[in-house]
Amino acid sequence: MDNAQIMAAIKYHRENLGYTSSEVADAIGYDVSKYSRLENNKQPILGSEMVSIAQLFNMTLDELIHIPTRKR
């Protein structure tokens, strides 16, 4: 799994949980523009940042980095 896939999953969860970019940026101690660079895959996300986001979303790291698949 590469950084782009991880950030796509984080963005998916952020939007589905109703968090703004600003709220997530605050949770990891970034300003919105720096968080935007993460979400747009302009810089790699650190493990500590993923842990903070997972805590904010009340998810495990495994849940955070995967987009759920639809059940048929």
Automatic annotation (TrEMBL):
<dbReference type="InterPro" id="IPR001387">
    <property type="entry name" value="Cro/C1-type_HTH"/>
</dbReference>
<dbReference type="GO" id="GO:0003677">
    <property type="term" value="F:DNA binding"/>
</dbReference>
<feature type="domain" description="HTH cro/C1-type">
    <location>
        <begin position="10"/>
        <end position="64"/>
    </location>
</feature>
<protein>
    <submittedName>
        <fullName>XRE family transcriptional regulator</fullName>
    </submittedName>
</protein>
<dbReference type="InterPro" id="IPR010982">
    <property type="entry name" value="Lambda_DNA-bd_dom_sf"/>
</dbReference>
<dbReference type="Pfam" id="PF01381">
    <property type="entry name" value="HTH_3"/>
</dbReference>
